[in-house]
Amino acid sequence: MFEGLAGRLQDTLSKLRGRGKLSEADVNEAMKEIRRHLIEADVNFKVAKDFIEKVRVRAVGSEVLTSLTPGQQVVKIVDEELTQLLGGAQSRLEQSPQAPTVVLMVGLQGAGKTTHAAKLAMHLQKQGKYPLLVACDIYRPAAIEQLRVLAETTRSAFFSLGDQVSPVKIAAEALAHAKTHGYDYVIVDTAGRLHIDEALMGELQDIRSTVHPTETLLVVDAATGQDAVTVAESFHRQLELTGLILSRMDGDTRGGAALSIRAVTGCPVKFIGTGEKVDQLEPFYPDRLASRILGMGDVLTLIEKAQSVFDQDQAKVLEKKMMAGDFTLDLFLDQLQQVRNLGPLDQLMGLLPGMGKMKKQLSGANIDDKQINRVEAIIRSMTPKERNNYKLMDYNRKMRIAKGSGTSIQEVNRLLRQFEEMLKMMKQFSGMSQKMMKKGKKGKKAPFMPFR
Amino acid sequence: MALFDRIKAGLTKTRETFFNRIGSLLTGRRIDEDFFEELEEILLMADVGVNTTLLLIERLRQEVKHRKLDQSEQLRPVLREELSQLMKSEDQEMHFGRGALTVWMMVGVNGVGKTTMTGKLAHHYRKQGKKVLLAAGDTFRAGAIEQLKIWGERAGCPVVSHAPGADPAAVLFDAIAQAKADGTDLLICDTAGRLHNKADLMNELTKMHRVLTREIPDGPHEVLLVVDATTGQNAINQARIFKEATNVTGVVLTKLDGTAKGGVVVAIQHELGIPVKWVGLGEKITDLDEFHPDDFVQALFE
Ligand SMILES: Nc1nc2c(ncn2[C@@H]2O[C@H](COP(=O)(O)OP(=O)(O)OP(=O)(O)O)[C@@H](O)[C@H]2O)c(=O)[nH]1
Ligand SMILES: [Mg+2]
Is A452 within the bounds of a domain? Predict the structure, then answer.
């Protein structure tokens, strides 16, 4: 299960065999590896240092469970601590005892505030609430227009006084408007600004003391680097944040910044943004982010990605067959074609657990369309019977298939071997994704296709 | 303007604390393990990344041994030299077309500053007397066309646009036709922000790029990847995949007016060979500067 970091840790800890206790020296060596890994995942240097110390203390002298290698044991501890530090799943907006509840969106330029203001409106509407979207970004060209269009898309009420009125005044009048018209949420979109811009930070403080937000949400790009700490700390100090929204989690970033921000502000991550569309807002699950930071592959990310491409009904059929261990070469062929639509293969593989090592081989092997074509040709040269039961395959059949597909018997053998391995992995995979899905949201098991 | 002065004052403060730290690292210190550890920390905190940092430190260690250095001051020029070497490129200048028309394309993930930089560049080259045209290649994001039009007005150049939701490749096609017809010197194409791991969106970008290649024999003359200085190691992935999709020729590093150092461009330059050509330093139309490797390195260290 723990390939990425665990693979490396295993090398580090290979001296320590079998069971027993983790020694201080072993642990220290492992911690170096983990620190490096965290920094590569954009966890802030100092946050990583503190975190490592905590893990180290816990790991030294801990029993290695029989079922785990020492490397896995360490990763398990890291994973648990990470999940804990990331906090519980609390993707709820607080409600003010007196309506309307004011939600203030703040953050750096380009973080995704406007889009997420609209997403929140939609989220609230789904719960039967009436939010008012307020355009307080009078600086960026067409920012008001952007929010207006988004409000139209989400069919939310929209409030603007143009760009010649001060944001403080706009917010105040919006609140009054919301009170008289019975809106229960006021979502204030503000201009992106630098945390060191005293004038503009002062403006936010003025808005705050005028409309008294229940929620002040910092929107942060999930791909932010080391500076996330400085930014979040500064915003928090000046505005007393109540929560975070991590935007662009649909990217392939590890998202270590979230850990840093959480560590320095203590604010919960309330939502994650997973796309440009207004309904792409999701609750935050610490365990999923923890495994993503560790590079253990976010099964659910893959599932979602796959879902957007795979035909739903087909996926259901496939899922059943996979569960039943009824996966055939025919289905494999099907998947091949669909996987092609998913994007670059090596990227895709990165999302799978247990693929850490293979990823390297993959990019080395240079898997491309041509290779997929050969695999396709081989499977197409099989009879339906053979495709349904690969165990039928004997020398004569293989020869025939090799000839028919213009490949060699070695290639046919290799494909069959891969397929067999895949079946094995699929069993692990389906067991695991079920486990993860219990914690996560409902989703379908993704068909997948390992290569070697 | 009072506001700008205040921003500047704020900046100076942060800069100072940072520089002071580096300053104290590089002055009056013995070069020992602690020294290297601190140096490593500074590089990592600047988003230079683990691999590049270790590489640099290894090179420095060798130099220290080789030249028998033991005082930190002696390392200052070596450090700057090594870093500059990683950052220097033969290809720092902007590329112009051999024919009458030059075409550039702006690409990058969402919100990094593509549209703003399009406006800034338009202004910059218009001031040099060029006839500039902009193409509103972001037909997807709400308000994007409107936003570019405002920048066009500010820069004093026309904008070719279609309706929201239109095919962006068609916008580019029309823009080229107009540019050819009215004797434009420089056409800059804005595009919608997109995450590099979305295959369909990257294909769309490739398609747009292809229009430019097809319509302009030696074009596009520049594909600029805009990178936000606050971005961490993911920027390397961004650069790699955008390069595959559109043959990126240069990086624009924006938002350097904040506290982020943008150290990840060292890795982008070193690993992918894409030179940084411009930096963005704010939201005003004049807040841009050509990239000077030496200045950048200096800002990292002194
Ligand atoms: N502080 C600062 N802000 C910048 C800089 N460049 C752009 N911005 C701001 O960053 C935000 C996003 O800029 P845009 O130009 O809209 O970015 P974009 O890449 O075109 O965004 P999309 O088209 O939505 O992907 C805006 O608020 C800009 O004003 C810069 O150099 N410094
Ligand atoms: Mg734009």
Answer: no
